[in-house]
């Protein structure tokens, strides 16, 4: 049974200084703590434009320089992963395609729609009045 103010009767208002209160709020989650720590250490979020630029530059590297990038432990992990994928024959072309599509957009693909047996399509325009009469 609700009491005054819409609060159920079984709930009691908490008093200031009550030990059951959590004055600091909910403790931060693991990812929040990790993110905070990494930002304090000077790391920043990799933006889409930064990644696109880096991948575009890696596409122009000779193989020996790409190998250096892939093995450099000081490089960001995202860069090392892309460099490694470009070096692997099984993944190189797919990585190239994804990068090309991401940086320059997919190639335009035209689609032609025709009626039966190649005839032109017929367009029938229906007005609101015709729709209303069709349902009567």
CA-based shape: flat
Helix-strand string: HHHHHH
User: Segments where pLDDT lies below 50 for 5+ residues?
Assistant: none
Mean of the pLDDT scores?
82
Total count of strands: 0
* Helical content band: 40-55%
SSE order and pairing:
Layout: H1 30-40, H2 48-59, H3 63-71, H4 77-87, H5 89-104, H6 128-134
Helix pairs in contact: 2-4, 2-5, 3-4, 4-5
Account of the protein in words:
It is built from 6 helices and no strands. The protein has a domain at 28-104. Helix 2 packs parallel to helix 4 (77-87), helix 2 packs across helix 5 (89-104) and helix 3 packs across helix 4. The mean pLDDT is 82. With 136 residues, it is mainly alpha-helical.
Please sum up the structure shown.
The protein is an all-alpha fold and 136 residues long. It has helices at residues 30-40, 48-59, 63-71, 77-87, 89-104, 128-134.
Relevant terms:
49% helix, single chain, 136 residues, 6 helices, mainly alpha
